[in-house]
DNA sequence: GTCTATGAATAAAA
DNA sequence: TTTTATTCATAGAC
């Protein structure tokens, strides 16, 4: 096809990352002369050490986060409550409805059919195997979920009750990164199975 | 205090919008022949009318929003509390820490916390697969973290041949939700460890 | 669910 | 701040 005139790029392909980086660096050197190292690699999920950088990014990302929250509430007609404390302790908050944050959060105890409830059902129904399912309210039931359940088991076997909030957050991050890596590999290996093994999202809205 | 939601300046120049749109449309016609209207203009900030589309968008944007919230809390060392109710009334939440936010969530204390116990019991009952020890209690634990990271990655790769992308994504979701539930309980039980695994900086802004 | 082109967010610099 | 180059998120099509 004669399309993609000029800028067809494979996104998120790890193997091309180095090359891209090098080209960018080279270009920077060429044009700027002495200023290099201008562009970043991928953002690492780790606390930013430099105080100034951290503050600048906080401002930018906070803005972006609030914008996203606002868009979600409008586009999808969802209720959103967001509270952020800067490292300095300053409070920023957003609530989609005209009620207070406390009221929104307070609804947690009034909503019986939540994700937490779904987890309860899943745990209760599990026999022998840890069939952790988030939406198994309706129809389909796990069939060949054994592999996935193994991971769920391992994750849950961690004595999660002994972990601090920071540890939980760290674990979450680690899992996310690991999965991202595995997914990237899967993407390069066409041997993957593309099947859908789990129940569909419940049709109730 | 209300955040300046919606007051961000668009980097792009408005006057170029039409031109860009037209070029995209023209390109689409050229390349696809019969496939048209494939690309979007910029997102309109109003409620999505189509139910299916709205549901799909909700899932995608919710994921993105929670990821952003998580990243902000880690990168910028901020405290973030996010609660989202889907149009169906389903609850999704994320909290980076219990400090200072605890009072806001004070009314959530009545959430049945049997879920955590159920999960742990289910996991223990199906033990025998692997026993994992987590130790992130040190202050600067590059070794432990790296070790855990390796484990997580290795564990995931072991069954990567058997796992589809869908399964990986599902697992990620499960872990996230489970951790959210655990965090919710942590907030109600401050007697748990509240230590931080990472180094602290003295001069917080 | 996956895939991919494109709009949007944003890190670094000005 | 504003600009720019790049990564990131995601709408639309499967």
From TrEMBL, chains A, B:
Which is a Gene Ontology cellular component entry for this protein? nucleus
Task: Tell me the lineage of the source organism.
Answer: Eukaryota, Viridiplantae, Streptophyta, Embryophyta, Tracheophyta
> Recorded GO terms, molecular function?
DNA-binding transcription factor activity, RNA polymerase II-specific; protein dimerization activity; RNA polymerase II cis-regulatory region sequence-specific DNA binding
Annotated MADS-box domain ranges read 38-98
Location(s) in or outside the cell: Nucleus
Q: Which GO terms describe its biological process?
A: positive regulation of transcription by RNA polymerase II; regulation of transcription by RNA polymerase II
Give the record's keywords alphabetically. DNA-binding, Nucleus, Transcription, Transcription regulation
- What is the native source organism of this protein? Triticum aestivum
Superkingdom as given in the UniProt entry: Eukaryota
The primary site where this protein sits is nucleus
Q: Which residues form a coiled coil?
A: none
- Region of interest (Disordered), ranges: 1-38, 186-205
- What's the name of the protein? MADS-box domain-containing protein
Extract the SUPFAM superfamilies matched here: SRF-like
């Amino acid at each position: 096809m004669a399309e993609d005139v000029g800028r067809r790029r494979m996104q998120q392909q790890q193997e091309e990352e180095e090359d891209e980086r090098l080209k960018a660096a080279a270009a920077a050197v060429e044009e700027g002369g002495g200023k290099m190292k201008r562009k970043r690699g991928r953002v690492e999920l780790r606390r930013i050490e430099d105080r100034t950088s951290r503050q600048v990014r906080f401002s930018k990302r906070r803005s972006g986060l609030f914008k996203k929250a606002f868009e979600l509430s409008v586009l999808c007609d969802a209720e959103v409550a967001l509270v952020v404390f800067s490292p300095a302790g300053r409070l920023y908050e957003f609530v989609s409805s005209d009620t207070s944050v406390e009221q929104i959060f307070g609804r947690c105890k009034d909503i019986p059919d939540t994700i937490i409830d779904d987890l309860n059902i899943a745990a209760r129904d599990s026999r022998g195997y840890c069939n952790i399912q988030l939406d198994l309210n309706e129809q389909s039931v796990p069939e060949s979920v054994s592999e996935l359940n193994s991971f769920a088991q391992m994750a849950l076997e961690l004595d999660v009750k002994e972990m601090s909030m920071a540890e939980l957050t760290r674990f979450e991050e680690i899992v996310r990164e690991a999965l991202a890596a595995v997914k990237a590999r899967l993407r390069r290996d066409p041997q993957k199975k593309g099947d859908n093994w789990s129940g569909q999202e419940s049709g109730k809205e």
